């Protein structure tokens, strides 16, 4: 179990460093170990990580499959945090495919953002910004972006998938001042990541 947990932790580190290939290999290895150990919580965490990686490398089918498995495991565990995070990943997979109807429906499933813990709240708001941009609702996207950046009280803190999702949002054409805010927030998170490695 200790080796599986260590591998999963290392896979998260690789993901944070944008080493997607290494992150995927590590997560798959940890998943196999957790499965053999019959540890559904470990399996769920690995499936969630694999779904995040798939979203980040534009593998929407893989993201959907891993997120669906994670959601089922988290539902079995009675873990509302995990269910919300997996649901958001399903919405992100739909957004990546341009399926805005499914994404909109999925984003209505989580409770109101204000009632969520900081990490899922920030992921929800950033995913909503992605949906609004896809619907050409730049003002609503900007509002969601601002709210997401304020979740932790300081913009230098973020959920584990937020920097990757912000990179996705940077692909869109943002009007100012939202474009400047997005660039500044990404730079702030990159600086914090860099300092943590020193």
**Which CATH C-level class of the largest domain is it?**
Mainly Alpha
Please name the fourth-level CATH homologous superfamily of the largest domain: Tetratricopeptide repeat domain
Question: Low-confidence parts lasting 5 or more residues at pLDDT below 50?
Answer: none
User: Would you tell me the structural class of the helices and strands?
Assistant: mainly alpha
Q: Residue-averaged pLDDT, rounded? A: 94
The CATH topology assignment of the largest domain is Serine Threonine Protein Phosphatase 5, Tetratricopeptide repeat
**Beta-strand level of the residues, as a percent range?**
under 5%
> What is the succession of H and E elements?
HHHHHHHHHH
Tally of extended strands? 0
Distance between the termini: 30 Å
Helical content band? over 70%
CATH architecture of the largest domain: Alpha Horseshoe
| Rg over alpha carbons | 16 Å
Number of continuous helical runs: 10
Features:
10 helices; 2 domains; 198 residues; 0% strand; mainly alpha; single chain; Serine Threonine Protein Phosphatase 5, Tetratricopeptide repeat; 75% helix
């Amino acid at each position: 179990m200790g080796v599986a947990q260590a591998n999963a932790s290392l896979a998260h580190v690789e993901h944070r460093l944008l080493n997607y290939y290494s992150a995927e290999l590590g997560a798959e290895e940890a998943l196999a170990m957790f499965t053999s150990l019959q540890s559904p919580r470990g399996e769920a965490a690995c499936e969630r990580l694999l779904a995040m990686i798939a979203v980040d490398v534009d593998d929407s089918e893989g993201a959907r499959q891993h997120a669906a498995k994670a959601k089922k495991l988290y539902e079995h565990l009675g873990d509302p945090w995990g269910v919300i995070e997996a649901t958001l990943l399903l919405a992100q997979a739909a957004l990546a495919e341009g399926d805005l109807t499914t994404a909109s429906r999925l984003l209505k499933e989580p409770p109101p953002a204000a009632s969520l813990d900081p990490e899922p709240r920030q992921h929800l708001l950033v995913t909503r910004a992605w949906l609004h941009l896809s619907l050409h609702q730049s003002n609503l996207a900007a509002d969601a972006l601002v709210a997401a950046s304020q979740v932790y009280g300081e913009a230098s803190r973020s959920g584990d998938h937020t920097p990757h999702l912000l990179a996705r949002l940077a692909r869109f054409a943002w009007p100012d001042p939202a474009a400047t805010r997005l660039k500044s927030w990404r730079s702030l998170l990159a600086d914090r990541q860099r300092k943590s490695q020193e």
